[in-house]
UniProtKB/TrEMBL annotation:
Residues 17-170 form the N-acetyltransferase domain. PROSITE patterns: GNAT. InterPro entries: Acyl_CoA_acyltransferase (IPR016181), Bact_Acetyltransf (IPR050832), GNAT_dom (IPR000182). It comes from Pedobacter rhodius. It comes from the Bacteria. SUPFAM superfamilies: Acyl-CoA N-acyltransferases (Nat). It holds the Pfam family Acetyltransf_1. Keywords: Acyltransferase, Transferase. This is GNAT family N-acetyltransferase. CDD domains: NAT_SF. The keyword Magnesium does not apply.
Length: 170
């Protein structure tokens, strides 16, 4: 078992955060966490439903991964690494959500770091990401992690107004 398959544990204050791989028991949390933030800022779109209603078929069975942040055992954060069928990008970092109950506690950073580490372990050279600039804390996090802006990639999301990439130096 390598580092990426082991549970990561971090103490935040008096609470413990564990970053764990997808299990079917977290399927509803995957959808609920994402619907919560998307519905707050935007409108759910067809592509959202495809991923959120069938994470196994849409993400996992195609070579992707989903990680959860368990905050004292409760799934309060999630992030996916979606295998891309693209000449330029190996994976997309997507479907990242952190419950408002624990925002500001570095959970997004821990999740994104786990996803990036997994991509590195798989030999990825570039990770793609789509977002919207009104999500300032998320955008700042992505830049902190080394993502840079790119232009003019096709997207299925009307809400997407920024596309960024992370070049991985293996």
């Amino acid at each position: 078992m390598n580092l990426f398959e082991q549970t990561r544990k971090v103490a935040i204050g008096r609470k413990h955060v564990e970053i764990v791989a997808y299990q079917p028991k977290y399927r509803e949390a995957f959808k609920a966490l994402n619907v919560e933030w998307i519905s707050k800022y935007f409108t759910m779109e067809e592509s959202d439903y495809k991923a959120l209603d069938n994470p196994e078929g849409y993400i996992l069975d195609k070579g992707g991964y989903i990680f959860f942040a368990l905050y004292d055992g409760e799934p309060l954060g999630v992030c996916a690494l979606i295998k891309m069928d693209d000449r330029e990008y190996d994976f997309e970092l997507a479907k990242m959500a952190v419950s408002p109950k624990v925002q500001g506690k570095s959970i997004g950073f821990l999740l994104a770091s786990a996803v990036i580490d997994k991509a590195k372990s798989l030999g990825a050279k570039k990770i793609y990401l789509e977002s919207n600039t009104i999500l300032k804390p998320a955008i700042n996090l992505y830049y902190k992690l080394g993502f840079q802006k790119v232009e003019d990639k096709p997207t299925p999301y009307t809400r997407c107004n920024i596309q960024i990439e992370l070049v991985i130096n293996n």
